[in-house]
Amino acid sequence: MRRDFPYCLHCGTLRRGAAATSYAAPHLRGLDDPDLLVPLTGPVTTLGRGADNDVVLADASVSRSHARIVRTESGFRVEDLDSFNGTAVAGVDLHGGAAHLADGTELSVGDVRLLFEQPREAHIGQRTQVVGTQLTQLPTAVQEEAPEANGPLTARPRRRSGWALKQVPSDRGEARWVLNNTRTGVYLELDEREVFLWHAVDGENTVRDLLFAYADRYGELALPRIEAALAAFATAGLLRGLPGRSEEAELKGWRRAGRALYRALLKLEVSVPGLDRVVTRVYHAFGWRFFTRTGVTLVWLSLVGGLGAFFVAQGRQHLLDFGGAGVWGPVLLAAGYISALVVHELTHALAVKSYGRKVRRGGFLLMMGMPFAFVDTSDMWFGTRWSRVVVALSGPLSTAALAGWCATGAALLPAGPASAVLFHLAFGLYLNTLYNFNPLMPLDGYQALTDALRVPRLREEASAYFRKGLWQDLRAGKRPGPRQAGMAAYGLAIVVGTYGFLVLALLAWHSRIGDLLAGRVAAPWDAVIEGAVVALVAFPVWVAPVRWLIRRVRRRQDKAGQPAAAVATAVEGTA
Asked: Residue ranges of the chain with pLDDT lower than 50?
């Protein structure tokens, strides 16, 4: 159920307490007649060949009084008025009956095809334009290969199939689109000019043609911007035919293996694709209840009441004291943590489904030697930024609610193993909630913060300003404003937090590896193995300075070699 429209866009059921008349009215659009567009503003809209109908369809297959669309308390419904040629909904003839209308439902009134849809305006955004991968199955004679370029301006780039483009709601005033590679799940955020370029790369226009078309449309020769946009399309796997980008080179060779190893060292990920069907079934079965007014109220009551119960239970419980549970205490505690982790990620996925989007995959990843679970919520880029904030915060809020229930059990149950295990579980889940709300790590709290501030690359921008921009402003005598001061403070916190997290990870791995090698490997090989493991764990931290140093050395070598090359060229010209 969308919160910005009165009825479900999938089944047509009216949301409880919503008044259809207070929202933009849906309309009927002619699929064969582009001029036919009828808003359904009245409680009853009649369709037929007769002049007394609200919608007159001058077609011989349409009866004089053929059908009507009724706005009811449960949504919109089409009723067949015992017409001669019948009324069909999604290919199913009504035979004098009725059927609910959902967004995007196709009607056949006799031979006239109509589409019932919610207009894509500010509340919901434009309808997604989808081009499927089936286009790649056309015969070779029909779909010719995009010609390779002989130079950067003579290239004829062409869109690859398997993409979706949608204009999404934005509160910033400017138009905003999201482009998705449906084959790989890569998303790009585009502005109006980048969308213009995307529609222009049809395999016929050269880069020179794009340059002049762009200048004719926007009044400027912006070759760097065009090249940057084309490079972004190609990197996302959505474009072919650019110079220097051979598909064979991208698909084969040691460079691709090297890139894969590099990405694995940065972030090792094991994911399970195709989770959307399972999550959809769970959402339709019972998950939707958590996003009703009653469900949200119960969550907040669990949060507030749980905190009070935790402080009550704290007076008679002690950490690491499982009340005589023995070895079963840690076992039950571990099982509870794993169950809470599953609920946390499942809540993220259900929140995505509550906005009608897809959950493409989920799994585990290893970052700086620390394990994390995740679900892919990238499809929320087709939604509003506040919907992404809700999805990001839903996980830690569900963990806090579970902690509240555990704390309530620990406070109400008599002293013993059960209350002790519940207290320890509540304590651990509260710590996990605070950790996920930490805005310094790329976790749920950070994702919500970036969307709330409308700064998608907050960590990168803040770190870059703290390292370079701040000192440049100070040397130039410029006083940083409130935004710059906030970015500098956040950048400093990012640096301290990142290295603090790294120290904790290194200490944990040092302890694990040291205990494992003790008595098994002689010195100095134990130190060598331990150092290698620590270096792999810290790879995401030290690789960036090393790459910067390599680029710096190469620039100096290039500058040193330029005069010699110029002299050699002059000698060859004289000879």
From this structure: 1, 121-125, 133-151, 246-251, 564-575
Which pLDDT value is given to residue 568?
43
Beta-carbon contacts of residue 406 (< 8 Å; ≥ 6 apart): 306, 336, 422, 423, 425, 426, 429
Beta-bridge partners for 30: 114
Sign of CA dihedral 421, 424, 428, 430: positive
Tokens of residue 244, six digits? 């220097």
Tokens for 123? 């509340």
Res 91: pLDDT: 77
Helix (H) or strand (E) holding 270: strand 268-273
Handedness of CA 548, 550, 552, 554 (dihedral sign): negative
CB count, 10 Å around CB of 254? 7
Query: Tokens standing for 523?
Result: 């010195």
In Å, what is the CA distance from 360 to each residue of 338, 374, 527?
22, 11, 42
DSSP 149: P
Q: What strands lie across the sheet with 55-56, from one edge to the other?
A: 55-56, 44-48, 67-72, 75-80, 98-100
Backbone φ/ψ region at 305: left (φ over 0), alpha (ψ -120 to 50), beta? alpha
Q: Would you list the DSSP string of 448-475? A: HHHHHHT-TTHHHHHHHIIIIIHHHHHH
Tell me what pLDDT residue 120 has: 56
pLDDT at position 382 is: 78
Q: Which sign, positive or negative, has the C-alpha torsion 51, 52, 56, 57?
A: negative
Chain segment 522-532, per-residue pLDDT in tens:
777 777 777 77
DSSP single-letter state for residue 24 = P
- pLDDT at position 130 is 52
Give the angle subtended at the CA of 470 by the CAs of 465 and 474, to the nearest 5°.
165
* pTM of full prediction above 0.70: no
Residue 201 CA to residue 415 CA, distance in Å, equals 71
Q: Beta strand pairing status for 44-48 and 55-56?
A: parallel
3-state SS of 56-97 is ECCCCCCCCCCEEEEEECCEEEEEECCCCCCEEECCEECCCC
Task: Say if strands 75-80 and 87-89 run parallel, antiparallel, or are unpaired.
Answer: unpaired
Distance from C-alpha of 526 to C-alpha of 524, rounded to nearest angstrom: 5
Q: Which residues contact 119 (CB under 8 A, 6 or more apart)?
A: 24, 26, 27
Q: What is the pLDDT of residue 453?
A: 84
* Residue 3: per-residue pLDDT: 54
